[in-house]
Amino acid sequence: NMTFEVVENGVSRQFKEVHVQRGYTLEELSQMLNDASFEVVHIFHAYKFRKPTRRSDRVFFVARRMPDE
Question: Which Gene3D superfamilies does this one have (predicted)?
């Protein structure tokens, strides 16, 4: 849960947001891309352009749309 405060025209208001995250394995994401007609070109550890490790908490996928058959 996160609480934010916004001041507009001298009036302050607060609002709350709930952010939910879901993790996927590299295999699950690769399969989802394949099911959507994408080919996985490369997978990088986020921000490093290195091969991801078991400890990588975020990765980037490079994918290419497969031609229609």
Answer: S-adenosyl-L-methionine-dependent methyltransferases, Vaccinia Virus protein VP39
| Whether the Cβ atoms of residue 45 and residue 51 lie closer than 8 Å to each other | yes
C-alpha 50/C-alpha 9 separation (Å) is 47
Nearest alpha-carbon partner for 41 in 61, 13, 15, 20: 61
User: What mean pLDDT is predicted for residues 46-57?
Assistant: 91
Phi-psi region of 13 (alpha: psi -120 to 50; beta: other; left: phi over 0): beta
Q: Which amino acid is at 57?
A: D
Q: Is the pTM of this model over 0.85?
A: no
Distance, C-alpha 35 to centroid of its chain: 18
**If we measure between CA atoms, which residue out of 69, 67, 44, 66 comes closest to residue 56?**
44
